[in-house]
Automatic annotation (TrEMBL):
Pfam families: Response_reg (PF00072). This is Response regulatory domain-containing protein. It comes from the Bacteria. Keywords: Phosphoprotein. PROSITE patterns: RESPONSE_REGULATORY. InterPro entries: Bact_response_regulator, CheY-like_superfamily, Sig_transdc_resp-reg_receiver. Residues 20-138 form the Response regulatory domain. The modification 4-aspartylphosphate is found at residue 73.
Length: 153
């Protein structure tokens, strides 16, 4: 996963809030690279991960206030990211759902929009866009105290 030399994306004088991200991705290599990239470049703190639809739905429903951003892959080892997205449609107004998928086709993007997804990024060529989205969201996110529980189900 290449993100180029994008250090310092937060403009000088702007205090970025650490976004609490929950990541639903079944590929361990992609997940770990994503976590490292977002923590380094976008002030993102990963509060938990899931590899299956059921794990993702359960954690997000049990911790409704402990995340700011859910990053969801659509094709999982068990189940679908669509089920995860459906399960957190009633999220808080400041919480964001994004999809990171190898299948970011127009039809998939339309289905995601119907589920209330805030953005869709293609894993193969839109990682920089995801980083920029996280930086922008961190600048607008409300302050939260402490960090939510780390979950790895």
């Amino acid at each position: 996963m290449q993100s180029g030399d994008r250090r310092g994306l937060v403009p000088p004088g702007i205090q970025a809030v650490k976004l609490r991200a929950y990541i639903v991705e079944d590929n361990a290599t992609i997940r770990e690279n994503l976590i490292g990239t977002l923590e380094e470049l976008a002030a993102v703190e990963t509060v938990g991960v899931a590899e299956t639809e059921e794990e993702g739905k359960r954690w997000l429903q049990q911790h409704p206030q402990d995340w700011d951003l859910a990053i969801v892959d659509l094709f999982l080892r068990q189940g679908s990211g669509l089920g995860v997205l459906e399960a957190c449609r009633d999220r808080g107004t400041a919480q964001r759902m994004v999809v990171l998928s190898n299948y970011a086709t127009p039809d998939v993007r339309m289905r995601c929009a119907q589920l209330g997804v805030d953005a869709v990024f293609d894993k193969s060529n839109e990682i920089d866009g995801l980083v920029e989205y996280c930086v922008a969201h961190a600048q607008r996110a409300p302050l939260h105290t402490g960090s939510g529980p780390v979950a790895s189900e």
